[in-house]
Design brief:
The structure is a homodimer. By secondary structure, the first copy, chain A, is α/β, with parallel strands linked by helices. In chain A, 42% of the residues lie in helices and 14% in strands.
Chain lengths: 313, 313
């Protein structure tokens, strides 16, 4: 028996979208642009930048178009935006036509009716029926598509969510032609045993599609779940600078796993990420000064390790 | 490939000793007794209660004898105390002769000269030369012995610590007749890959002795290291209520892994501990009220999961 560690993993930085969306404070556009530009220099390969949800629902991201137009265009970084519906997709395409860099779009639905209702005010069947035309339109416009299935490991409203229930939805999404399916532990209910079983099953039934894990650290199991997902062959993870974010509809839910803590764990194990941990930690410090409160980052508290950084070897 | 999960693990609660020792505040004896009595009712199988270090060095535990005399004697719980030297052992034996319950003694040395010097003001060779007579005397008095090797996974002063260096010390300790060797990540530098390699090696060279892991959560890797240690066959862990404790000589080091977070992880995976998570969480709340600041417990923040507790099934 051996630990199953990949040579490298792909991290998607979620703080500009999921992080800022869940903060009370609405940051000025220039503050966001500065933070994103700093993140774009960390070596992170993918970044989720904003959302084209109606500003009435998410005022924090009302400046989506301005942010996209003003940030630097850095080569080799994949820029994504969250799209709630056809109108949002058209807005994103307009901004792209004006010269903004957008490589990927992210569509979202939930594994449970209660959360899908709360989050997007639709039944799962409605969400699934709208997806094919959205995916088709996005792909015809040259955009890569990833679909997030929230509450994949348990639901704040409905409790236990079976693997079968999620796989049924995921198989439908897969058949629509998405490049990547992203499984969210939105309520922070996943445990390592479940994660292992989940992804072993997912790899069996979802062939030829990238499988991404998006863990929350609600009960401190975020990084353990990453290790477990890697045992099951997963090499793609979402995370958020300084643990920013969460889910406004999940009572008690705290943020996504912290990017710099994740990067530190991976580098210490010799797993490459392409990310400069010191630069990422500087970004976390920037975010902490911006919000003016201690954020959920162990690396910010303890500092990056001084003894070694495998990534630099 | 499968996750290697044991049916059950043995947890030793360290907060009364390692937790309280590292707090600035010196708690009244009656407050300690109340906390320990509550911990004794959680189902935790082992508890490290106090230390017979000279009160000049650790005033927080100056009332060791009073605490041992006043706490309840609960059957099926193993009571241990930390012993720094021959004088400390005699004091412990006196208290035991007066009717206190003491089942185990804990001797400590470090894997690095710098930390051993800082912690016990001896060279490693001096520590090793004193151990045999201490172990013999303890065992002749009917006490079980466990020896903790601090800085087993890295040193705050010396950086990287090789597995070979630790195994050399551990083999000497093993030959002296200890029942258990406890490897401490005192500086919080262990990573899951290292932990796996470490314990695979330890199981190979240290036959017939219980191997315990004692992780710190300095950079958020405490629970991940537990999962990794279980992959390598370890089933014995030290932890501390609400993450209390740390090491006064390790700059930046935060506490031991949090008992209730560990118990939650294990129960969610179906691994038995014998501990009642709700009662343990109540103890953590008690500790938090005592110290009057938020402690490092995710379960205290988020609450024990409502959906299930495998331990209760």
């Amino acid at each position: 028996m051996l630990l199953n560690l990949p040579r490298s993993v792909t991290i998607r930085e979620e703080s500009p979208r999921d992080g800022l969306q869940n903060e009370r404070a609405v940051l000025p556009t220039e503050t966001k642009v500065a933070l994103i530009n700093a993140l774009l220099e960390t070596g992170v390969p993918r970044i989720n930048l904003t959302s084209f949800v109606h500003p009435q629902w998410v005022p924090q991201l009302a400046d989506a178009a301005d942010v996209l137009m003003q940030i630097n265009r850095v080569e080799d970084v994949s820029y994504s935006v969250l799209i709630p519906n056809a109108r949002g997709l058209e807005r994103a395409l307009e901004v792209k036509a004006m010269g903004a860099k957008v490589n990927e779009v992210n569509f979202v639905l939930s594994a449970t009716e209660s959360h899908n209702k709360s989050n997007v005010n639709k039944t799962i069947a409605q969400s699934l029926s709208e997806l094919p035309s959205l995916i088709q339109r996005a792909r015809q416009s040259g955009l890569r598509v990833y679909v997030t299935i929230s509450m994949s490991f348990g639901c704040a409203f409905e409790g236990v969510v079976s693997i079968e229930r999620v796989m049924k939805i995921a198989k439908e999404v897969h058949a629509m032609g998405t490049e990547e399916i992203d499984f969210g532990d939105t309520a922070g209910m996943a445990n390592p045993r479940q994660v292992y079983d989940f992804f072993m099953k997912a790899r069996e039934v979802l062939l030829g599609v990238e499988l991404t894990a998006r863990f929350h650290d609600t009960r401190g199991l975020g990084l353990v779940n990453v290790l477990s997902a890697m045992q099951a062959g997963v090499t793609s993870f979402d995370s958020s600078l300084a643990g920013l974010g969460g889910c406004p509809f999940s009572p008690g839910a705290t943020g996504n796993i912290c990017t710099e803590d994740l990067v530190n764990m991976l580098h210490e194990m010799g797993v490459h990420t392409g990310i400069d941990l010191n630069r990422m930690t500087e970004c976390a410090g920037m975010a902490q000064r911006t919000f003016g409160r201690p954020l959920a980052s162990q690396i910010l508290k303890a500092g990056p390790p001084k003894w070694a950084s495998v990534e630099k070897r």
